[in-house]
Amino acid sequence: MIIETDLPDYIQYLLIAIQLFALGLFITLVWPYIRQEKWRKKFIENKTARSFIIVFILIFIFLYGLGALFDVLFPIERLD
């Protein structure tokens, strides 16, 4: 069974290049729509949207901290 570390270097670099190209293409296609949107009025001045953003950021920080805590308390042990 082949895993990621078994791939030759040139294939790994090719996959990275394809991903970077796709990201660049996506940004190029979406950027005009992002620029014309009124983000401040939509998210910052809207109290409900701002509250949702703050709650999602707090949830993300909590889950990240919980993951770090479990990594410290229960480290991965090798089975061999």
Summary?
The protein is an all-alpha fold and 80 residues long.
Write a concise keyword list for the protein shown above.
single chain, 80 residues, mainly alpha, 2 domains, 3 helices, 76% helix, flat
Describe the structure.
- This protein is mostly helical and 80 residues long.
- The chain has 2 domains: 1-37; 47-74.
- The protein contains 3 helices and no strands.
- The radius of gyration is 21 Å and the shape is flat.
- The model has no long low-confidence stretch (mean pLDDT 89).
List the topology elements:
Blueprint (H helix, E strand, L loop, with lengths): L8 H28 L2 H6 L2 H27 L7
Name the average pLDDT.
89
Helix content: over 70%
Total number of distinct structural domains:
2
First and last CA, distance: 18 Å
H/E element string?
Answer: HHH
Q: C-alpha Rg, in Å?
A: 21 Å
- Main sheet? none
Shape: flat
- The proportion of residues in beta strands is under 5%
- Unreliable parts: none
Number of strands: 0
Assembly category: single chain
